[in-house]
Amino acid sequence: MDETPFAALQRDATGYQRSCALTAAAELDFFTLILRNGNRMSALALAEERGVDARGAAVLLDALTGMGYLEKTAPAVAGGPAVYTVPEVWREALDSRHPLSYVPMLRHMANAQRGWAELARTVRDGRPQTRRPSILGAEEDDRSFIMGMNSIAVRTAGPLAAALQRAGVLDFAASPARILDVGGASGTYTQAFLEILPTAEALIFDRHVGIEAARRRFAGTPLEGRVHFQAGDFYQDALPSGFDLAWISAIIHQHGREQSRALYRNVLQALKPGGRVAVRDFIMSADGTSPAAGTLFGLNMLVHCAEGRVYTFEEVREDLEFAGFTAVKLAVPAETMSAVVSAVRP
User: Per the UniProt entry, what is one GO biological process (predicted)?
Assistant: First the structure.
């Protein structure tokens, strides 16, 4: 062990401080504001433009500088204000205007933190605690969630699509495929699939806020004519039918096994005979203790969803078979949420 028990406990117990500093800056959009003003701004000027407390802004900016996410330059003239800049290495990720920005995920993490702060009460009561929306409002919190997922998916979708092709899940070389992206949000995975399957078409089925994001993604692109959209609630509405592949990405952890089985039954009727379903999520060891990231994500579901949880392969297999699927296998093993279980409609 490279560190003492005290040092390990201190590191883990204080980790929230760095996270809270980053997520607060994301909610306030401090990094983008600095970049928009020539990447050179004093704490007072930032506070005035953003409409926040000047002392609070200065303390947060100094903390972010100490963490390495900002640089602070001494005043050019005596008595003048110091200015803050965003280092080049962080500009793409911390500029909320950039398509690869990590800011939406930081905002989603800020919302998650409010639930985690009540973890002891949640464990005591067995249910999530009531919490209020962020300073951005509930509607913007929904957008942050969708685009936060996108900020992860844009980095993982391509490699995962290639892994699915190697595993035979995306083996549609013989004929054009119809793909159903269930709860597909902004369509990051749909895009990756269509890019490696040049004759395939896809339909994204999600709530209106997700469909709006997906329409924006594909509008005016070469893929626009191959993507279709349908707004709905896959927990309540029947899915459209006639598909060769149904993609269920990062959904099952939001609910319990009865809802999973209901979702799988809904997906079953959406597929052609011989069609496949692919379920992406954390897939836990039989005893539920690894991967470690999955155990922590299980806590995240505990504090946010009434029946949210992570699943073992055996549980996913049982639920898919209960719904009527066969040939269930772990198509893509992973220690992350990029594990994929596949199955076939008889």
Answer: methylation
Per-residue pLDDT band for 338 (boundaries 50, 70, 90) equals very high
CA angle, residues 168, 310, 135, in degrees to nearest 5: 110
Q: What share of the chain is helix, strand, coil (3-state, %, to 5)?
A: 50, 15, 35
Q: Which of 98, 108, 208, 253 is catalytic?
A: 253
Residue with tokens 């990231």: 293
Which CATH number covers residue 252?
A: 3.40.50.150
Peptide bond into 75 cis (omega under 30): no
Using only C-alpha atoms, the chain has a radius of gyration, in whole angstroms, of: 22
* CA distance linking residue 259 with residue 236, whole number of Å: 11
pLDDT band at 2, cuts 50/70/90? confident
In a shared domain, residues 167 and 241:
yes
CA-CA distance, 140 to 319, in Å (whole number)? 34
Single-letter amino acid, residue 201: E
Q: What is the CATH number of the domain that holds 60?
A: 1.10.10.10
If one counts the domains in the chain, the total is 2
Average pLDDT over residues 235-263: 96
Say whether 108 is catalytic.
Answer: no
Question: How do strand 83-85 and strand 71-73 relate by DSSP bridges?
Answer: antiparallel
Q: Give SS3 for 346.
A: coil
C-alpha span between 142 and 138 (Å, rounded): 6
Using CA atoms, how far apart are residues 105 and 109, in angstroms rounded to an integer?
Answer: 6
Give CA 136 to chain center in angstroms: 18
Beta strands across the sheet bearing 271-281: 227-231, 201-206, 178-182, 243-249, 271-281, 339-344, 326-332
pLDDT digits (tens, 9 = 90+) for 59-83: 999 999 999 999 999 887 777 899 9
Residue with the bigger pLDDT between 331 and 140: it is 331
- Residue 10 structural domain: 5-94
Q: Average of pLDDT values for 92-109?
A: 94
Specify the pTM.
Answer: 0.89
Q: By C-alpha distance, which of 195, 341, 225, 232 is closest to 277?
A: 341
CA gap 110, 274 in Å, rounded: 43
